[in-house]
Amino acid sequence: MSGEKLVGIVLVSHSAEVAASVAELARGLSGAGTSVPVAPAGGTEGGGLGTSSDLIAAAAASVDRGAGVAVLTDLGSSVLTVKALLAEGDELPAGTRLVDAPFVEGAIAAVVTASTGADLDAVEAAATEAYSYRKV
Q: Terminal CA-to-CA distance of the chain, rounded, Å?
């Protein structure tokens, strides 16, 4: 599968632990099929709470397999940081997209869908659809 083009997923949180845990959960729930490249980008370089454009850019580069990169974020400044990186145009791989989706449910839907070999539009649609998941 090393040559297969897959959508990569980046999970941006203010907390390194939250980003890593959601990545682990999404990978675990995606099954034993295709291994989707997923990278957490949480916290700051010093290990504190916040967001880091350098960590986000490195995570996006690490999951880029030529089919686009879906970036899911948790809160306010993580969204603004990703938007700023996208506006700069050269910090993130071509085909990187900020996906408007709930962080946990959207991440799981994105990883499961990407594991089927789906394209970036389908991955984004699945993640966004997670807004409609009802719990009661």
A: 39
Amino acid letter, 52: S
Question: Which of 41, 53, 42, 50 shows the shortest CA–CA distance to 84?
Answer: 53
The string of pLDDT tens digits covering residues 61-83 is 999 999 999 999 999 999 999 99
Task: Pinpoint the alpha helices (H) of 1-136.
Answer: 16-29, 53-63, 76-88, 103-114, 120-129
Alpha-carbon separation of residue 46 from 7, 20, 76 (angstroms): 29, 16, 20
**Sequence-ordered list of residues with C-beta below 8 angstroms from that of 132, at least 6 positions apart, any chain:** none
Distance in angstroms (rounded) separating the CA atoms of residues 68 and 63: 9
Q: Which two tokens stand for residue 111?
A: 């990883």
Structure confidence by residue, pLDDT tens digits, 23-50: 999 999 887 556 899 999 999 999 999 9
Burial 89-125 (b: 16+ CB within 10 A, else e): eebbbeebbbbebbbbbbbbbbbbbbbebbebeebbb
The label of the residue with tokens 């959508």 reads 7
pTM: 0.94
